[in-house]
Amino acid sequence: MNRNIRTVDDVLTLLDGLFAPGADRWTAAAGDWWDRFYADRSRDVPFFVALPDENLAGYLDRGLLTPGRALDVGCGPGRNSAFLARNGFQVDAVDISATAVTWAAERAEGLGVRFRHGDAFTTEGSYDLVYDSGCFHHLPPHRRVSYLALLDRVLEPGGHFALTCFTDEEGTAAPDAELYRRGGLAGGVGYSRDDLRWIFQDLTEVELRRMTEQPAGSATFGRSFLWTALFRKD
Hints:
- By secondary structure, the chain is an alpha/beta fold.
- It is 31% helix and 21% strand.
- It has a single domain (8-232), classed as Rossmann fold, CATH 3.40.50.150.
- The chain has eight helices and seven strands, in the order H-H-H-E-H-E-H-E-E-H-E-H-H-E-E.
- Strands 3-2-1-4-5-7-6 form a seven-stranded mixed β-sheet.
- Strand 1 (69-73), helix 4 and strand 2 (90-95) form a beta-alpha-beta unit.
- The longest helix has 12 residues, at 143-154.
- It is globular, with a radius of gyration of 17 Å.
- The mean pLDDT is 95.
């Protein structure tokens, strides 16, 4: 058939295809790319460490989050999933990379985390916390629609959404339209404070700041080129 657009999902799938196969394409090809990325666990990759994000640990220490049901979106090697489970959360975690999920399940063995390999946007259920450390900035612009629909569907009223993503100094600052002309995200999309406030305007901002750089030997992970944000669904 020459005509393959009938639904919004058809449009999103078409737009996915405008990006070259790789980390920036939300298809099976992206899963293959990330499988290769996670295959060598000895690589010097900052977030391969088995440490939780400093902001996440801080939210619990300050009482901004309390144990409940949590969804870890793009869980990677599971460092934040394991931390949440150890602190009393019932955790579901999803990643498009089967290799990452295998590693994460090993790290969280015995903690009761339910890991799933697949598309986070198909997640069903209800959660008190949706946590994302490093997934959002690898999504092409049109998939923000899918992302916001996920939050609207699964986040409980009064629940929280917490995000760690590239600043516009670390990720590409190119306009959305330019990313389609290039057919890629140049390693990840960078966001400003105003970008994040505009995208997540239907949620109430609790805190939005740069992540605090953590020294060697710290019990938490932190890099200052990232934003940390906490929003609440009222």
